[in-house]
Amino acid sequence: MNLLPYYLFARKTAAGTDPGGGGTTPPPLGNTGTFTMHLRKGREVAFGPLVMDMVSTRSDMIMHREYPQDLFVTNDLPDYNKLDQRLAGIPEDDTGYLTFDYEGTTMTDLKFGNVGEPLFETALQRFIDIAQYTKARRTALRIGFYGLTIRAWHTADVARYNAEGKYDRLMPHVDFITPSVYLPYAQEEKGAARVKQYLEDNVKASLAYKDRFPHLEAVIYVDERIHVSNDNIDTVASEIAGRTLSYASLFHRAEVMAEHVAIIKNTVYNGVSPDGIMFYTRGTENGLRFKPYGVDFHWGSHIGIPTPITGTETQTVAQYNDFFHTMVTAIFSRIDPPAN
Q: What superkingdom does the record give (predicted)?
């Protein structure tokens, strides 16, 4: 069964708005206001009744479309026949959001290339062409590309991948930028100070473009899990599980996620701050398929779940949906900025 995916998108709004859907208003985050949440609609994720009930009571939540690469790309090249099929389902006067997830070789050429180099220029033009093609057919639609600006763990790489002026020719054709700060490490591995540096480095790279192109919104992707490439051993989880578990795809702890959200929202570059935060979740029918052994110990009692998320696929899906609702409310109830 192919269910529609959803991602949680959080944006600042006027103080006093209730983003939790549960009748309480979280505390303000610094001087940047409070958050509300928007659902992004893509392809595989389906939230359970707790989350959807929370959304159904909210007049300020919107659906934010996302197109995975295979819906508009063939052999790493834009496929306008595919794109036409997708756009046909969007009303001509639609003013919503659409994110294109265009990765692969084209994104790699952007990442490692420089202005004037053939591979870079070809890749950049593909992004521009998709944006122009879409805008010509859906003039009111707000569009952007996932992963731009490009994240990196090391400060020097952040500067290299997102050099000043590198994406300037693309920016007039998009309405928002959606950089990802998907963490390659657990905070327990590298420490809070190093993770804070990583978050601030990458958010500021996007804000530098927003500063030069004031029409842009900066929407920061935050993943609730540690990157799948992390093969370092989580000794605590391994001891509980009775088998060796790496950090790959394990959830961050609730207080850690809240701290990350606070850091991002309070990051400022030349007086410019982020417009939104996107929770990149995978609440699919087989939504824990990327998580080793279908088990997670990081959250546990931190958010009121006394036992690990595990079990059969059916149980896992139900548990995940309940978990995600709990995660959202936990983060927004703990959103005070960190002390330093």
A: Bacteria
